[in-house]
Amino acid sequence: MKIFKILILLHLTTILLFSQGHIDKPFLWKVTKDKQEFYLFGTMHLQVPELQILPKSLVTIINNSDEIYTEIPMDISTQLEASKFVIRNDNRRLKDILPKELYKEIVWYLYKINPKLNISLFDKMKIWGVSSSLTSLKSQLKYPQMRAIDKVIYDYAKSKGKIVLGIESIEEQLGIMDKFTLQEQIISLEQALIQLNEKRDYIEELKDFYLKGDSEKLISFIESMMFQIPKYKKLEKKFMTLLLYQRNLIMAKRIDKILQNSSNKTSQKNYLFAFGVMHFLGEKSVIEYLKSYGYTTVRVK
Predict the structure, then answer these.
(1) Do 48 and 143 form a contact (C-beta atoms < 8 A)?
(2) What is the pLDDT of residues 59-78, one digit of tens each?
(3) Global model pTM greater than 0.90
(4) How far apart are CA 265 and CA 68, in angstroms?
(5) 119 near 107, Cβ under 8 Å?
(6) Which of 62, 56, 261, 252 is nearest to 168 (CA)?
(7) Tens of pLDDT along 187-231?
(8) What SS3 class is residue 69?
(9) Which of 273, 225, 212, 216 is nearest to 67 (CA)?
(10) What is the distance between the alpha carbons of residues 275 and 259, in angstroms, rounded to a whole number?
(11) How far apart are CA 38 and CA 49, in angstroms?
């Protein structure tokens, strides 16, 4: 009887956990050109409870789609392959690479999160991999079983027998990070530590703007998180060019090619493209490029 009560309690806790919040206004666009019609959905790469349940409008679109494209393939083999790109191929430890003070800051930050965490866990990682891991560490420890919404979309679409592909390869996406010099990666790591040590909860703020569907506040927030020190502005420009603008152009060209190939066939397919929301917002976005190709985009309410 006691075990039964515990199971009921766990079940109720799960229900409460998943009902804490939801996406009020999805970043969802309907795109048309002539007789073609498809959808764009902006995701957020956060592993939090509120992003485990897909909006009803998005579920309907997935159900009616023939093919769904995420940024990269979300299958297990691709995820395993991704881990290889983060590993350095030298025999050095972080202690041998990072400035002493920065190394100490990471050790202290890990200790504050959990005294059992050891920096040796990151010893073989590339510096950009350390930055990425530290930024999402708290969330991953708090919600170890959570999936990013991209994976939720993938899992649901596969359960419905849909074809799910990546608009980029894992080599293309993660290979970009190696275009930053070691010094640039160290500067980025320093910036990440500054933000992580501030009292503001950036992840919570980011999540809230995303859930509310507030594009203007989301753009302003992202801009406020960029490199604030004037001498690092050149690095900021490189980040935006490589990680956003150039990829946006490639994504838009590939979407256009997919749609053109579909229009040449007797029966057109229905498509959904689900990428990180910032690929659809602001200047030089995927949406801006698609408009230049003659597509019309409308935010779905």
Answers:
(1) yes
(2) 999 999 999 999 999 998 88
(3) no
(4) 18
(5) yes
(6) 252
(7) 999 988 988 888 778 788 888 999 999 999 998 888 777 755 666
(8) strand
(9) 273
(10) 17
(11) 28
